[in-house]
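ok trying again, last paste got cut off:
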Amino acid sequence: MDPGPAAPPPFTWPVRVYYEDTDAGGVVYHANYLRFMERARSEWLRSLGFEQDGLRLDHDLLFAVVGVRIDFLRPARFNDLLSVGVKLMRLGRASLDLAQVIGRTPDLELCRADVRLACLHGTTFRPRPIPDFLLRGLRV
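nice, full thing came through this time. structure:
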């Protein structure tokens, strides 16, 4: 199901590139882009009023990445200040699809990805429907 016209606006989160994020050439190691995206998704949920530990403890719910398609366009380097975007593209009954973009300036994309998250029971890790209160919150 499409999130519809009431989908939350795109969200951005700043991330500074530290030395530990880079390879020997001072360029962000490819796997670290996924870490930056994870941080932005956590902050996006928080901005909508949902803490991931609260969802797990109070509702036996967690989200797991089940698919990523990623394009590396330009390198990020040590000490860059990046913006990591999150945009809800599709809201399903038990999953959501997000578009994520990492940029150095508003118009310079470094990396972009399509990310699918599945809603799982926190104890069994089996798929479960996204509860109505969360569906409503994701539609804002």
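cool. DSSP finds three helices and five strands in the chain. The chain has a mean pLDDT of 93.
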